[in-house]
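ingest -> validate -> predict -> emit
validate: passed (alphabet ok, no gaps, 733 aa)
predict: started
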Amino acid sequence: MQSSMMFLAIACLLGAPPAGGAEFFVATDGSDTNPGTAAQPLATIAKAQEVVRTQVAKGGDASVIVWIKGGTYPLDVPLVFGPESGGTEKVSVTYAGMPGQRVILSGGREIGGWQPQGDGLWAARTPGGERADRFRNLYVDERRAVLAREPNEDARPDCVQLKAAELSEDRSRFMLTFPPGVLDNLAESSDLEVMVAGNWAINRKRVESVDPAAGTLLLRPPHRQGPAYILPSAGRWAYVAGARRLADQPGEWAFDRRDGAIVYRPLAAQDMKAARAVAPRLRQLIVVAGTEERPVRNLHFKSLELAHTDWQLPAEGYMGIQACHYGEGDQPGRRWKRIPAAVCFRDALGCSIEGCVVARLGGSAIELAGGCRDCLVEGNRVFDASANGIMVGGPKIEGRVPSGCRVANNHVLACGQEFYGAIGIWVGFARATRVAHNLVHGLPYSGISVGWEWNAEPTPCKENVVEWNHVYDVMNRLCDGGCIYTLGYQPGTVIRGNHLHAVHRSQLAQGAPNNGMFIDQGSKGYLFAQNVIYDTAAELVRFNQCQRDWHAWEDNHIGDETEVRQSGREMIAAAGLESPWKEREAAYEAFGGNLALVPEMNPVMELDSLRERAALTDEEVGKLAAQVQRATAEWQGRGAQLWAIATPELARALSRWSLPQMKEYRGVPPLDKVELKPLGLAGDNLLVLEGTIDTLPTHHALVTRWLKVYVLYDDRSREIRHATLTIRGERLE
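emit:
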């Protein structure tokens, strides 16, 4: 009940209209010729932007909120908000999802008309028959499909080591040699690309030609020389991907250039006649772009879901440098770009994104770039991104770096799905940025990175604060990083109260060790206080080209897990998400990232008003159960690592008040002996079930105390409108 009340607090916090403000409404069944009222809503956000600009231009002190009703809003182009699209010093402009409704702004196009091919594959074409190359990602029933590859993603190891890598002196020819058998039957190379892992970044290049007999492939030019610690070389781990022939595992897809079709091999029990497949087509979804003279002011985005972006490889391919920055052009030297974010703020003043889901992305998620001041990124769930999670950083120019911004209470996980050098939260050249109370985990490289200069010379980067974050389960692919990574001279920077643990080292890691905190080159002038660090693959704290005594150290708890968890228990309790965000993510926290069963963010009503009503009849419950099959489909894939509730079990749970089994997913054993009982109805349309889980496999060191299911349904039609399953658990010490 307390958890649900916290959910309600989030809804109230994010959904309260400005006092005395103007309200406009957008709905999927609206019309842009309507006035934008609740009864006659607009159809597009682009039209709402025009209405808002007119409203703000009238002057006055009335703030403006645009309520976006539930549904999916496909975007043909990114939503761009210039100086005239924001508010003023006194007037705010807010675009918010309606409380309790799922509002998706999608940069993708739905792919339908799937037809069986006779070999277990299904094929479809993009709408209008246009060629599908080269979108790089496909989502089927909200899960990221795997670009068909060799070795397969579930192989152990899932990469092979190169036998050789030869770049000609004039950089015109780059040939890789693979172990025998990897390139068999891959003479058709036009759709192939190759991934080669470096120390702390990777390479992705398209393929020019393949010689299967020799086990060699030529990479498509142009080529960069690149640093030795990233450049493909003998012994580096690699895989090839993209050819139809490689789509031999359920969940894999490819683009068949011969006939312009997309091919996909369904997961078990996946019905392609009913499946929803989405291919991204936009690089970005929201771009807030002011100017140095005219920043965008007082513009806010709340309770939205932003999904389905793509990012094409540059002509020369992707040669990672660090933190999803890459070398530009075919000439060596420091000409770097970074993979773009779905939501980008530039020259923004007092703007925010709060309580949103930003996921299923071909690039990065959220960026505060040059000229941003006093902006807020809070309470967002960021996951399933190909590149970085949240970025804060501008050019190395005093007055242009982001300043006074706050990144707080975000849950960032499963970034770096394609570009393994990704960071959960990256702070480059920035001043007085506060990164606080975030939950960051499930990453191939480092969790939080602050600083962007490889020496101890002064830069505009200073006075940043990284405090009370919980960072774990990092360094799952690459090396030479940690939960927290730092660079450069940053006077006044504080790293305090962070809970850091579970730093791994994979077979792909070739190079320096992985640590709790890696204090890298030039790091100087920091205060480290009250941090708790344990369970790392190598040293708990490592220094490279800097010294411990360049910093101040106070009351840190670094060492044996048993000892520091006891001595630093107050810090551990204070680190991570705060209320109400903590309650929203309770399932993730309780189960160490392996469970994600609370997909919806907002409640629908005041649960304190629970009142008894007559129990539903078996017939009524049967009608509910029929709708649950559709409702549960929305739950699939909402988290990066999700326990999927088996639809038949959940339907039976509502009809018999018993949930005897949950479906196993990704090797996590099923729970059993789950008993549900009806608690009654809240108001007229919220059915509440509560139960306990008696047993949980002991090797998980977890015991679950209770479970609640909230099902919002239409009291007249008995149709499911919203369903949330909450599981609370405790870790056994």
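Residues 650 and 659 are 7 Å apart (CA to CA).
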